[in-house]
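TL;DR need structure tokens for one chain.
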Amino acid sequence: MIAEVVSNRKIATATFLMKLKTERQISADPGMFLMVGFDGMDPFLNRPFSIVDIVKSEVHIIYNLRGRGTRKLSNLASGEIVQITGPWGRAMPKPKGKTILVAGGIGVAPMLYYLKSYPSVLMLYGARDADSLIPVAGYKVTIFTEDGSAGNKGMVTDGITDDYDLVIACGPIPLLARVNAIISKAESWGIFEGRMGCGCGICLGCVLPGHGRYIRICTEGPAIPLKEVDFESLRHRV
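>> reply
TL;DR here they are.
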């Protein structure tokens, strides 16, 4: 599907919010993602991005500058065209009982769409410093920064206790591993990211090690129960 760039602006350190106007209105649940790419072969593979919001015929994504693909995205101006497919993936579970979200860095992106649907849910949100924080005004959020320049000083996982019914976390692998280690009673889910070639389970480029099997992030996730992931096998990334 073709999508037109409506706006593309920097909202935090090396972080951009892009609004896209689609040919038809998209319907998606929180946690699902789009594959975004360009005409031609540069870069060859599309990139996956969590859906941050959908407003009529607009879909919003947030991305960090990480490489050639995202740098090319950051240079797009209003009116330029990208190619999108999706939405793809398994959505986040609905709140139940006492629910909390835990987000680190760009991991806040899918949480914003979740909070739009469930604004009473509390979120713990951590970033490196105040300049790296993505705007989250209007929701119940407790902020953590590593240098103490905004909110509480420390890691976002410092605020987690094991007295919830449902915990949903999104961020780098070390954050998800730490949440998994802390939570023993609650149902706990992680929103995972990975390099993807297709977004629909064919290429197997985004697999995670599970217990006795591999898990495809694109089709069995991005929302995956943390207990299903073999974090010991991921220790080289933790």
